[in-house]
Amino acid sequence: MFKHSFYEAIKWINDSISLFRQKPAMCMLLALSYVAIGITPAIGGLPIPIKLLAILSLPSFQLMVINFYLELDKGRQPRLAGLFNLIKPYIGKLVILGGICLVYSALASALTSSDLATLNTMMQDGSDNEAIATKFLPLMLKVLLLLAPLLMATWFAPMLIVHHQFSIFRAIKSSIAGSLYSALSLGIAWAILTLAFAVAMTLIGAVVAIVAAISQHAAEALASLILINCFLVATALMLAFQYVSYRDVFAKKFENLVKVDITA
Predict the structure, then answer these.
(1) Which residues of 129-166 are buried (b: 16+ CB within 10 A; e: fewer)?
(2) Over 90: is that where the pLDDT of 225 sits?
(3) Looking at the 3D structure of the chain, how many domains does it have?
(4) Structural domain of 241
(5) Contact 185, 8 (CB under 8 A)
(6) Which of 146, 169, 170 is nearest to 100 (CA)?
């Protein structure tokens, strides 16, 4: 089981990198747009309606990016207008999915707000590092446990809604089931990608430190540029990885079922 999951995870990573390498500039541009929409709710001073619109529209834009990778995988030339037209009939369902995510996130935030306030108070009061760590680690575990169902529910759901005409709640249920079924493969792939970027950031840090010995200003500019690009590459690969995992967990199996039905 582990051996199969390991090879599947490696395959997903290789396929994600291959898709990214076909159009790296466009992939990073889409990743930048995705990140911009994602961080909009955290920007202070923006009107509440704009923040809500960003949250509700995120699944739709996320699916457009994933469909971009689908077109690349099929050997077709992606067109933004075509990507939008594909999801246009399902925007209502995708907005509702975004609303469900918003409600769940608000509940998760409410369940962790008191812990965050306590941790913030400890840091402001200058508590010792051991006491802060004692509070921080359980909080992080709590946040991860609360966010895990949301991640599993939305990992495959948008594609199931648009490409297989699932209802919203059937898509969420199937997404959770698919995530649990492939949990080991998904977990191994996430761990490898995280480790790879951690190593890359360590090496980049060493290069920046060498440059800093020569020029502090050049090092700061170089660090900012590299960090932004690394973050965009990581986001683009994450979205490509989301597509290839959907392709293998759901799309190919549905294609096989259709072939069986046609033969019958």
Answers:
(1) eeeeeebeeeeeeebeebeeebebbbbbbbbbbbbeeb
(2) no
(3) 1
(4) 2-263
(5) yes
(6) 169
